[in-house]
Amino acid sequence: MEDSSQTHKLKGSKTIPHKMLSLDAFSQWLGIEILECEIGRCKVGMTVRKDMLNSMNKAHGGITYSLADTAFGFSANTYGKFAVSIETSINHIEALEEGDYIIAESIIDETRNKLGFHIIEVKKGEKLVALFKGVVYRTSKDWE
Fold first, then answer.
1. Domain 4-142 homologous superfamily, CATH
2. Segment 87-117, tens digit of pLDDT
3. Which end of the chain, N or C, is more open, meaning fewer C-beta atoms within 10 Å of its C-beta?
4. Backbone angles phi, psi at 26, to 5 degrees
C-alpha cells in the first residue's frame, strides 16, 4: 500500500506541469508540449517557427532559453511546492532554423534544503544545441 505523501507526490508530478502550462500564455504561444514528466524531471518540446527567427534567419537565443526555462520550472514544481527561479544561465551550442523540432529535458535535479539545482539539455534529435543551468527556491506554498 502506498502512503499518502507518496500518492501526493505522484499526483503532483503528473498534474502540476499540465496546470502550469494551462496558465502560461507565453509557453502556449511558443507551442510547447509536455512529452514526459515525473518527480524532478520534465521533458518538453516545440517547433521553431518563422516568427521566432532573428535578423540572421536563425532561431532567436530566447527561444532555446524559453524552452529550457519551461522544462526547468515544470520539473522544479513537481514536488508539490511552489518553486521560483533565483538564477539561470544558458550556453548556446548550435544555431537553429525554422522547422527544427527541439526538446528540453531536465536531466539533473539536486536539492539542498530549500534550494534546487537543475541542468537542462536542449537537443535537436540527438544533437545537443544548448545547455541550461538553474537554481530554484522551494517555498512552503503548496500547489493545489
1. Hotdog Thioesterase (3.10.129.10)
2. 999 999 999 999 999 999 999 888 888 999 9
3. N
4. -65, -50
Percentage with pLDDT > 70 across the chain: 90
pLDDT surpasses 60 at 65: yes
Other Cβ atoms less than 10 A from the Cβ of 102: the count is 22
Q: Which residues contact 55 (CB under 8 A, 6 or more apart)?
A: none
CA quadruple 59, 62, 63, 69: dihedral, nearest 10:
160
The full 3-state SS of the chain, as one line of letters, equals CCCHHHHHHHHHHHHHHHHHHHCCHHHHHHCCEEEEEECCEEEEEEECCHHHECCCCCECHHHHHHHHHHHHHHHHCCCCEEEEEEEEEEEECCCCCCCCEEEEEEEEEEEECCEEEEEEEEEECCEEEEEEEEEEEEEEEECC
Query: Could you tell me the pTM of the whole model?
Result: 0.89
Higher pLDDT: 67 or 110? It is 67
Set of cell numbers at residue 91: 550556453
